[in-house]
Specification:
Elements: H1 3-7, H2 10-29, E1 34-35, H3 43-46, H4 79-89, E2 96-98, H5 103-117, E3 131-136, H6 140-148, E4 152-159, E5 162-163, H7 165-171, E6 177-182, H8 196-203, H9 205-208, E7 214-218, H10 236-243, E8 249-254, E9 266-270, H11 272-282, H12 291-300, H13 304-333, E10 339-341, E11 350-354, H14 359-368, E12 371-372, E13 390-393, H15 400-424
Parallel strand pairs: 1-12, 3-4, 3-6, 6-7, 7-8
Antiparallel strand pairs: 2-9, 4-5, 8-9, 10-11, 11-13
Bound molecules: pyridoxal-5'-phosphate.
Pyridoxal-5'-phosphate binds next to helix 5.
Length: 426
């Protein structure tokens, strides 16, 4: 990893460090206030959906089902909205539940129900002692919610094709392993999409795992391409049906990063058996979701191809921010082996791996100069990156010029810390 650093003489290293430190002080003096921590859409992205405001124009009745969106009823969602999002989940409209504004909340509820009550065909509630597989680096909120519910997380590394499936297949032979978190497309933070082979092996897990094992398939970025002809993800529900394992798959998504973040609607796709179970427990929590907002979305998007066209507008706005980041990193760090970074075809994140032991130091050095980065370790269960090397970058929210400044400051911090680390070892 740090072969370039190793090849430099101590004198050269010291010179390089002095140059990097001088640049750092210069950037610090600019009193920057930059934040690339969370994967939020930018203001111009959410503005792409401004026509949701007023789109109903007094017509609150869903045109096909004739349901009055203003009233109670149809607590699992408007049939028209289910039809719209079913292809995003890769399930049938009858397998969709629409609920709330956040897919994370649907996932939390699912795991809480499983923990307290057990899942269909389960032996008992998952309860304390249950273990969930976490693919690392991964999405911090998956890990924190699992830990909050008292379940244990077991890390499995992400490979270029998806989770290390040899490890996963071995782990699920243990009946206390009840689930696996997956962000199968443009994964958070690595940006890769699971290969067809990996999805096939995942779909077969239901044959070797305990009957109450569940794949929590958080497909948050199904249509969030940054490039033309983005990645294709194999439909896990279709495959599972062919293996008779459809009860092991739970799929999630939301309109948050399609229209208004946190002010759209979330959805889940499940086998009829799981859906009945989930709906029963949800009916204790809510009388129903905001169907008026669902109807707004149905009026805005006729079908999947409308959504895809809309997502191209998002890509036009955010792709330049990713490109700006790569350009700075290429200029500053290419061929230096201080860092490697992902260049995903979609999603919201860039994952940067540093020299082992450097991530926390880089994050705090950057903070001292006004750049907020996701805390080191956040992409691992319990906030502990065993190699202290991964940093997640979210370039979508700040304006382009700020992304450039942030990338430059981040790169200079990486240089300072990497050079200090190498000198400290001599
Ligand atoms: C993988 C993943 N899942 C879920 C979410 C949150 O989605 P929602 O707004 O639907 O809760 C995010 C947000 O960053 C995410 O990256």
């Amino acid at each position: 990893m740090n072969s370039v650093l190793k090849s430099l003489s101590t004198e050269d290293l010291t010179n390089e460090l002095n140059i990097a430190k001088a640049r750092f002080e210069q950037l610090k003096a600019a009193n920057l206030s930059l934040d690339i921590t969370r994967g939020k859409p930018g203001t111009d992205q959410v503005a792409l959906s401004n026509r949701l405001d007023g789109i109903l124009n007094g017509d609150f009745i869903a045109h096909e089902s004739k349901i009055d969106s203003r009233n109670y009823g149809n607590f699992d969602g408007l049939p028209e909205a289910k039809k719209l999002v079913a292809p995003l989940l890769g399930v049938l409209p009858t397998e969709v539940f629409i609920g709330g504004n956040s897919s994370l909340s649907l996932m939390y509820h699912t795991i809480a129900f499983a923990t307290f009550f057990g899942v269909p065909n389960g032996i008992a509630p998952w309860g304390k002692g249950a273990k969930i597989i976490a693919i690392v680096p991964g999405y911090d909120r998956h890990f924190t919610l699992t830990a909050e519910l008292g379940l244990e997380l077991i890390s499995v590394p992400m490979t270029a094709e998806g989770p290390d499936m040899d490890m996963v297949e071995e782990l699920v032979k243990d009946p206390t392993v009840k689930g696996i978190w997956c962000v199968p497309k443009y994964s958070n933070p690595t940006g890769n999409t699971y290969s067809a082979k990996v999805v096939d092996r995942l779909a077969k897990l239901g044959k070797i795992a305990t009957s109450d094992f569940r794949i929590i398939w958080d497909n948050a970025y199904e249509v969030h391409h940054l490039v033309q002809n983005g990645d294709q993800l194999t439909n896990i529900m279709e495959l599972s049906r062919t293996y008779g394992t459809e009860d092991s798959v739970l799929i999630y998504g939301s309109m948050s990063k399609i229209t208004f973040a946190g002010a759209a609607f979330a959805y889940t796709g499940m086998s009829p058996t799981n859906l009945k179970w989930f709906s029963k427990h949800m009916s204790m929590i809510t009388v129903g979701d905001d169907k008026v907002n669902q109807l707004r979305h149905v009026r805005m998007f006729k079908d999947l191809s409308d959504i895809e066209m809309h997502m191209q507008q998002h890509a036009k706005i955010i792709n330049p921010k990713f490109e700006a980041f790569y350009k700075v990193f290429d200029q500053e760090l290419k061929d230096l082996s201080y860092a490697t970074w992902t260049m995903p075809n979609g999603g919201y994140f860039i994952s940067v791996d540093l020299i082992n032991g450097c991530a926390s130091k880089v994050v705090s050095l950057a903070a001292s100069a006004g750049l907020k980065l996701t805390p080191a370790g956040a992409t691992f269960p319990y906030g502990k990156d065993p190699e202290d090397k991964n940093v997640r970058i979210a370039p979508t929210y700040p304006p382009l010029t700020e992304v450039e400044q942030a990338a430059k400051l981040f790169a200079v911090c990486i240089k300072v810390v990497s050079l200090e680390e190498e000198l400290g070892q001599r």
